């Protein structure tokens, strides 16, 4: 099967997780990280999930799965070891055109979850279309070592510069040239080495205006 790669905005959206074990715990942690409103269907919870429940981070819908519970959900993740419950939940979600992921069961999913590397606003997703999650994880680990924290800082800087340049009366071609020149410059390497003097020099050269180390530090904060 061929999957269409997409990034979803889950902020405030209702996400239901069927299951309360260690696998469900990992899925819930990620959903919360991306702003979803998480509701759980499970008889038992791990200690960490119980803590999240007590803190009001998640809600319990019910102990047992029922089709009526999933109305209004944006997506559902199924993470139990009960094959009957998993299949019932998957079919109920598909019948209602709700996005559903059944852990380790691609045939019961309408979407699969890739291996993800995140550096601030940089998100790199790797998928093998469900054929080998272990390989996707291995590739992700390789990429993780290649893309350090400097990418998060560089993107904060680029966001600030982009905002500045878009506010100026400038031809689109000229702005595009500057953006490409910044990406192709030695600034990323300078940030990795924490050499703000070198980064300031590169910014002066490309943006044609003075830059101090304090200016660079300010840009790296993305403010």
Question: Would you give an account of this structure?
Answer:
With 223 residues, this protein is of the alpha/beta class. The chain folds into 3 domains: 14-113, Rossmann fold (3-Layer(aba) Sandwich), CATH 3.40.50; 114-147, Double Stranded RNA Binding Domain, CATH 3.30.160; 150-220, no CATH class. 46% of the residues lie in helices and 15% in strands. The protein is built from 9 helices and 7 strands. It has helices at residues 22-33, 47-54, 83-95, 133-146, 150-166, 172-184, 187-192, 196-207, 213-220; strands at residues 14-18, 37-41, 58-62, 75-78, 99-102, 115-119, 122-126. The strands form 2 sheets. The chain has a 5-stranded parallel beta sheet with strand order 3-2-1-4-5, with helices on both faces. It is elongated and about 65 Å long. The two termini are 43 Å apart.
């Amino acid at each position: 099967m061929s999957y269409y790669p997409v990034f979803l905005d889950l902020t405030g959206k209702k996400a239901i997780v069927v299951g309360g074990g260690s696998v469900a715990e990992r899925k819930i942690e990620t959903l919360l990280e991306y702003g979803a409103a998480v509701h759980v269907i499970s008889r038992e919870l791990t200690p960490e999930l119980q803590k999240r429940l007590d803190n009001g981070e998640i809600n319990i819908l019910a102990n047992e799965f029922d089709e009526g519970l999933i109305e209004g959900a944006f997506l559902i993740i199924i993470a139990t070891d009960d094959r009957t419950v998993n299949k019932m939940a998957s079919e109920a979600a598909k019948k209602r055109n709700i996005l559903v992921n059944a852990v380790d069961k691609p045939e019961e999913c309408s979407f699969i979850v890739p291996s993800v590397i995140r550096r601030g606003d940089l998100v790199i997703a790797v998928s093998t279309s469900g054929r080998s999650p272990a390989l996707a994880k291995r590739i992700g680990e390789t990429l993780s070592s290649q893309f350090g924290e400097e990418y998060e800082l560089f993107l904060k800087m680029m966001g600030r510069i982009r905002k500045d340049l878009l506010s100026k009366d400038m031809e689109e071609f000229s702005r595009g040239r500057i953006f490409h020149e910044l990406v192709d410059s030695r600034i990323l390497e300078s940030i990795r080495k924490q050499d703000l003097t070198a980064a300031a020099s590169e910014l002066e050269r490309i943006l044609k205006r003075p830059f101090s180390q304090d200016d660079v530090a300010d840009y790296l904060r993305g403010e």
